[in-house]
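# step 3/5: fold
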Amino acid sequence: MDFFSKMPSLVLTHIFAQIQSERDILQLIRASPEALRHYVQYRPSIMRHRIAEILSIDCDGSIIQDAQAVIHFPPIDTNSPVSTTSILAITRCLDTWKDGRFPEYSRQYDAQNISRLYRFFSRLITFIEDYLAKSLDPSPARACMALPEILSIVPRMHFKGRDVDVEPAAFGAMREPERRCLLQAFVRYELLCKVYHPKVWPYLEGTTYADIVTSSHERMSLKAYEALYCVHEYLKSLYGAVFAQCQDSWFPDRPTCSEFNVAAVNQTVEVEPETLASCKNYGLLFPDNVYFDMQQYSCGLMNGM
């Protein structure tokens, strides 16, 4: 018998609300027919509760303001010049963001706004979990060569279609300050990408709107700057992983620590390494032992073309 069938609907909704990752929800509804039925029937309510749970870490309201600015930022057509209407919409959006006039999150939001926020946060959390998994891996540079399976129910990564042994990390398992720092950095980076878009920034540069963005930088703490830089490097590494998998690159084996014998001789310590394994056992040793550099692979791809 499905255990969830014995639970009241409100309890099930609260269970869904406590789940931080969309993938965890997919695994739950895959395992439980009753959970699937409830999710389909009450999805709008579940989305409202889940967003409220995610934003419970937003102490000063800055995350929801940035997120609202992102989803209300007008889309830019890269194949045509930016229209006057779009520029006016962008400036109105930045004015509202500067004054913090986007409405605070409420479960009374209209369904369209709820749906857009839900998709936005779900997508970001998927990338945050990928970032965490690669950062916490014993060999981060090696892990950065893999790409996340965005549409997979089970969190996993692959290199040229082959699953790799990078352990997944759960956003909800992190402490609240860490979750707030990561979510704030990813949301702010998304907003800055829209503002500094090559087709948008030339219209803003030298105006009061450029000053608005600059002043927002000045209010940031050093920790927030570092978090933004980490997001920037992570997204660069995703491009690097794409480049690496589009050419004749190897995915190295996981390196193993050499064993050492320590012997005390004449009050000194001598370290005697065991016979080292062949480099074939270690996979690709260059250039990714310590740092994964996107530029190495983009250059290789261009040379190959």
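# step 4/5: annotate
The first helix runs from residue 9 to 18.
# step 5/5: archive (pending)
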